[in-house]
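Example 3.2
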Amino acid sequence: MAESKRKPNLMKTKVPMPVQDPDVRIKNFDEVALGYTPEQAVEEARRCLRCKDSPCIKGCPVNVEIPRFIELIEERKFHEAYLKILETNNLPAICGRVCPQESQCERYCLRGEKGEPVAIGRLERFAADYVATHGELGYEAPDMAAPKGRVAVVGSGPAGLTCAADLAKMGYRVTIFEAFHTPGGVLVYGIPEFRLPKRVVQREIENLKKLGVEIQTNMVIGKILSVDELLDGGYDAVFIGAGAGLPQFLRIPGENLNGVFSANEFLTRINLMRAYRFPEYDTPVKVGRRVAVIGGGNVAMDAARCALRLGAEKVYVVYRRSEKEMPARLEEIQHAKEEGVEFRLLTNPVRIIGDDDGWVKALECVAMELGEPDASGRRRPVVKPGSEHCLEVETVIVAIGTTPNPLITEATPGLELTPFGGIMVDGATGRTSRPGIFAGGDIVTGAATVILAMGAGKRAAKAIDEYIVAKK
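Structure, written as tokens:
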């Protein structure tokens, strides 16, 4: 489209995303955000200024050519836009839904200086969904007559899927080993259906299989096979992308009471084991009338919103700092508020109180005030003396983060680890202290974002290729 004929959209706000009504959606697990129509996508694409230096790209961990794919959407070349994204991002339908664009690509958009940035994530989702709806595939299996080598990938979350896809495109035979019965990692066990439908994840995984990637499920590496056995069994390199699935707890009295969940268990039962469809699926999860979710991140928002959908009458999010310091996405906080979640900010739990039968009946808390900044740069919460009070609840969900499960690292001698139990790597390549072993994603960084894990998988794939080529 010639620039001289182009009529940009100068509206300061994004084209609104259609969503389910809050009163309707709290009674179902269907996707909340409904996606752009072609007309809405084109209108939003017209807001792009097409900056010559493309500052938005530097905010993307996988370096998608953002202005170019948006230009293609404006020209109604939706399939071409999808293929442009696919050049560097193997999971566009997922990233368009769950990536924190506001702190990454959209953060650098010049339209954000005098209004809202271009809705890059919504446009990415639109391109992927449009192609899926119209049956136009973007993946072609490479010629594997003479593969460059064999690589084992441990874990089928975003880091593992990205690493596997990139290696397959380079001409490697790749096998993914997944501990669960369903591939997808945190994408299937951690993120609720109403934010990321499992059919979308399965669609992306089926595309990956079209590249020739083999996926073996129910394979617990560190138990069934070790990393060294993979290397001895014909694999030229191993990428470890097993995530951070070990939940952290508060270490306060009462955490062993019935009715206390880690967010990890709570969400896994709901998302992976479909507890919300009990008795059709036989893994129920008990939720009381009143629920307290402790934490302020996306996982806390997910747990709170799931509890509402499972029939809780009152759901509290208990967070020790103010809303300004909450790490959750603004959109997730807003959706939680719309659905009726009550935020108890500057509040910290100190004890979980049980009844005579060992079930939760209350959460004792203290009020906080913000003091000087701590190591994270956020102001440190300080207890207000004499502010003790109780919330009457029957369920407590702890959503304060996760750390890497030590299963793989304990079974892999010689891996250098970080103080919190993650695998120490070279940040540019994913190389570990062991030759031939690479790692990336949450098992390196601790719990982080999908797109950062994907970026790590991408860097590792490039380094694995260089390692194998040099070795051979």
